[in-house]
Amino acid sequence: MSSYALAKLIGFGLIILVLIVAAAQSTYVVQPGFRGVQVTLGKVSEQFKPEGFGTKAPFVSHILSVPVRQLTRELNAECYSSDLQQVAIRLRVLYRIPETAVVKIFQDYAGDPFDSLIAPRIQEALKEVTALQSAEQIVKKREEIKSRALASVKTKVGDVLYVEDIVLENITLSKELEAAIESKMVQEQEAAKARFTQQKSQIEADTVIIKAKGEAEAIRIRGEALRDTPGLIQLQIVEKWDGKAPLVISGGENSGTNFILPLGTPALAPAAKK
Question: Which residues of the chain, if any, have pLDDT below 70?
Fold first, then answer.
């Protein structure tokens, strides 16, 4: 093969290679859960690229992917309570970038917008909220602290990013303060138990008094009924009679004792003869 033919073959191969590279450079794919930002010679396109396949100018333009799905980041914050106690909070932040703000986020905030936009606002919001509560109340009212901090963060961040939720995973106080709070809570529980025992005893005493008053009132009413209606005793005897006639046995002329036996009672055995 002559040198001319070889050079021609190499040139043809180079052209094919350039065309293949150019074709590869002129296409892109945006993965699900992302949006693309097109940068052409340092200029950012105002419109984001949706997920899927697309074309662009080869060599001079490239596509950067920005996530729009919900993201989770951990954050440590140090705050001070109203009683000047240091409080360390470990939290988890759930946020996402709205697709309408993808281009703005890329232009205005370098790197991850969480570090430059969300984290400082959360630190500020937590410091404002915890400064209004004592260290003990911060521990007891963690849900209230979270709700107030979340509302403040959403106001500070605005619509640029969506802060979906913050989760307070752990609140750490000094060991001395934790021991003091624990001792106070134990004392409060013991006091509550003592109050419950006292209330229970009072209720039981009131129940006995009410029952005694009820019985006394019942006795009084029965006494008045017997006094006003003498025949009531005979009526009660008739109502309770079982239908058997009683047998009266005298105790003798000089004895004032009489025995009343029902007719069904077996006859007394005769005395044995001597």
Answer: 1-2, 4, 22, 110-111, 177-183, 186-187, 225-274
Q: Map out the domains of the chain as residue ranges.
A: 3-67, 71-173
Alpha-carbon gap, residue 51 to 36, rounded angstroms: 7
Tokens encoding 204:
């039981």
Neighbouring CB atoms inside 10 A of 142's CB total: 14
- Triad 88, 94, 95: Cα angle to 5°: 125
Provide the sign of the torsion angle of the four alpha carbons 206, 211, 212, 214, taken in this order.
positive
Which residues is 165 bridged to in the sheet? 94
The Cα–Cα gap between 101 and 48 comes to 9
Asked: is 71-173 a CATH 3.40.50.1360 domain? The reply is: no
pTM: 0.58
DSSP label at residue 117: I
- Please say whether the dihedral angle defined by the alpha carbons of residues 116, 66, 152 and 150, taken in this order, is positive or negative: negative
- 80 within 8 A of 127, measured Cβ to Cβ: yes
Helix (H) or strand (E) holding 29: strand 27-30
Give me the pLDDT at residue 236, please. Answer: 62
